[in-house]
Amino acid sequence: MVKFKALVFKNLPNAAHFNFCSQASEKILTAGEDVITALGTLPSQFVQWLTKETALMEWVNKSQLTVFIAEADSRMDRALISLKAQVHAHTFSSDQKIVKAAQHVDIMLKSYGKVYSKPYEEQTGDVRAILLQFTGEYAEDAAMLPGVPACISELQGAFTVFRELLQQRDTHSLLKPAEGFPAVRRGIEGVYRQIVTVVDAGVVLNVSPDFALLINSLNPEIERLNAEYHRAKRNIADAEPAPIPQQAYTGQPVTPMLEVLYVTSHDGTVKLQLGKDYNLSYRNNVDVGNAECTIHGKGHYMGSKTVTFIITRI
């Protein structure tokens, strides 16, 4: 008899959780009439919670603004540093008119100190003031300095992007959803479990084939998510370590490395990583004769497995 597969919600990252709930909502809302009747208000409750989760996902996506702002700030810093370096280099020119103009601009830039080390709001004010200076009192001086107008143009472009992103951030902060992911996930999962109970009961009672159709439409995705995100601990004793070749006697502990493979049903053969999936320990590994290397499971792997190798005088 067909039945809903149990989905391990706690293992799902927010994006996978949202994508599954969106898919489930679509299939529930388009289920047969008998299913919709049996579920009553549950589909509408599910949609209400999904709407809240949608708002949270939009918030998370927009929160990438933090990354974009940092990148724009770096671009602005580079432009300002380049501008200062270009101006300062011209103070060593053999052309006295260029030297005079460069010194004039150099003093102005130095008066603002280390702009790139200041908070975002102060940086915005300082860069805006510097750019205004280049459209006013320092315009002629800047025009005389080769390469400086291009630096100013780059600074203007970086500043424009930086300022716009800060404005988006300020607007975005006002739109933050009142409920966070934990509360919304609990709500939507609670309704989902009620839906599962009703639909599973409909199959048992043989009310309509539509109940089984709904289950079969979601079970493949549930199995995929469980396989991708639910990794139960595996026994390292089932691993297949490569044979360790004979080792030369040195009078010191011999600690050979070895390749450890693990065969899984859905991932195929996986090469395990030392330090992440397992650690090694050794026994009787100084004198000539049989020595032991024990593989200790770590992370998603438990237990241990011991292999032997030979130490010999070459």
Question: Could you characterize what this model shows?
Answer:
- The protein has 314 residues and is α/β, with parallel strands linked by helices.
- It has helices at 14-29, 33-39, 42-62, 65-89, 96-110, 120-135, 139-144, 148-173, 181-204, 209-229, and strands spanning 234-235, 240-241, 247-248, 260-264, 268-271, 278-283, 289-297, 301-302, 304-312.
- It has a four-stranded mixed sheet with strand order 3-9-7-6, with no helix packed on it.
- A hairpin with a 5-residue loop joins strand 6 and strand 7 (289-297).
- The relative contact order is 0.13.
Radius of gyration, taken over Cα atoms and rounded to an integer in Å: 33 Å
Low-confidence stretches: none
Helical coverage, percent range: 55-70%
State mean pLDDT (0 to 100 scale). Answer: 88
Distance, first to last CA = 66 Å
Strand order of the largest sheet: 3-9-7-6
Please tell me what the overall shape is: flat
- Number of distinct helices: 10
Strand content: 5-15%
Structural class: alpha/beta
Largest sheet data:
4 strands, mixed
The tally of strands reads: 9
